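Researcher: Next sequence.
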Amino acid sequence: MNTKIISPLGIVALVLGLLPLCALLPGAFGYSLTDEVRTGWMLANFAFIAASLVLAIIVKSSSEDQGAGTKIVATAVIVLDVFWALLVIGLFALAFVVSFQSGQLLLL
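Model: Next structure:
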């Protein structure tokens, strides 16, 4: 019988799901990043979101023998990752529409 309240894999998924918030820190402290660093942050955020979503799905599907805390954390991480994914898709759509109207296609 497993008496763990929250799976360690669920905690890793939660931490990976919250890492895209680190992209807001330089702006909060008034730092300006170069284009290369911003592109790196963007790619890292994609990797964090994808890894977090995969881990959360694994935890959710194998949580029959886990406690209720694991199920709650896995569900919260999935909701958070869907939010991040919708936000990224919306920003890409906005960038595409704005650059298409200006006559030049600038996505990155």
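Model: The mean pLDDT is 83. The chain has one domain: 8-102.
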